[in-house]
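PROTOCOL LOG
Step 1. Enter all chains and additional molecules of the complex.
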Amino acid sequence: MTVARRLIPCLDVKNGRVVKGVRFVELRDAGDPVACAAAYDRDGADEITFLDIGATHEARDILLDVVARTADQVFVPLTVGGGIRARSDVDAILRAGADKVSINSAAVKTPELVNEVADAYGRQALVVAIDARRVNPLDPAAGWRVYTHGGRVDTGLDAIAWADEMARRGAGEILLTSMDRDGTGEGYDLALVRAVVERVAVPVIASGGVGTLAHLEEGVRPIARGGGGADAALAATIFHDGHFSLSEAKAYLRARGVPVRATEEGR
Amino acid sequence: MSDARPHLCMVDLGMGNLRSVERALRAALGDVSLVVTRDPGAVREARAVIVPGQGAFGECSVALARDGGALARALVDHIAAAKPYLGICLGLQVLFEGSEEAPGRGGLGVFKGHVRRFREGMRDDDGALVKIPHMGWNEVRAEGVPCLPARGWFYFVHSYHVVPAPDEAGLARATASHGETFVAAVSRASVLGVQFHPEKSQREGLALIKRFYDTEVDR
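Step 2. Run joint prediction.
Step 3. Record the structure below.
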């Protein structure tokens, strides 16, 4: 046994509310990120990620309040990303009670920020998110490029080399999203996940495309057995839409030999 | 209880994550009397001490050595008096003599042994790289610690782990595996040191805090 593969539900938050909503039957307010995080926590989430998609300073203050209230009642690691531009944003989010920050565009614009944050807080507090798109959708051998601003801006950077540079600069983990697969429900871009896992020595979180529990399993299955080899699987829609619960996903993975954390319900 | 002293004293070594631990203590124990301090006098007053820590051994050692080592002495005396001590991560590691992370910087030396780094380049059964830091949930197997279940899942974030000296028999009470088997918890008298983070280990973590308080502090 080694460290368990992690399941990480991701909540998109805008102006203090969950975007897209989460369909939990028992939830009184499906739009409240604190209530959603607590529900995921109860259901066995190994970590929880908030992605802030609001952009204004006002929205930022609301987010910090949400983070603080979540940290008061959720006792698994909490990662917060979205809209982080400077060191001061990082400081504020960690001070509010997040365990990790996730930075994306800011790392492309100012790669030194990665070194700075890792030096100040340790690399375990820093996730670098990479949105990657295939150069040729039909041919993984053509490689992947890094996109920013929600997939709208092509940076021209090679995604695999970029992941390597981020890990070297101090990223504690790489959150790797396939823009080709995101929202499709067709499964992770396993070739992309494998390519990054084989290049970097830090944990890789696979993201983008999960539509079934089998997709989660493929993502974290070892490369030697045809999987992506990711250390963690992040998903949003399949958990939010109520099709699958975290505990069902855990049970599915455990039945297929994936080391996952047992929770009291899942014993 | 008539004893007016604070029940718990959380030692601030400037190592971050204090708020997380404080939140977990309040969630697990309710309206407990708690002070957060780096004042050696407050440590001496306290019934029980909690030393959290996430960061570097060297900085931790420096914090303990300030003011002629007054804080270090207060902690050593506290433990020598068989008063409850809960060390988390670095709060466990500093109980030993020193660490590979900071050669030349001493720990409290309450226990003989050192802190070593995980071996680099280890592979698991599937040929995948064993990653350092060891970050995430791992299964802990414990024996004879009232506060710990025989098997439980806890959240770890660390690159170094304690290696008690061979003559410290019975000190290591729990192990976990990450490329190699390592000591996940030590326990002796009223001292409990855990390498994982109860404050991030959901129910099992809060339950550990509660049991520590019930068995060691609120007797």
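Step 4. Note key features.
Helices of chain B lie at 18-29, 40-45, 57-80, 90-93, 202-217.
The mean pLDDT of chain B is 92.
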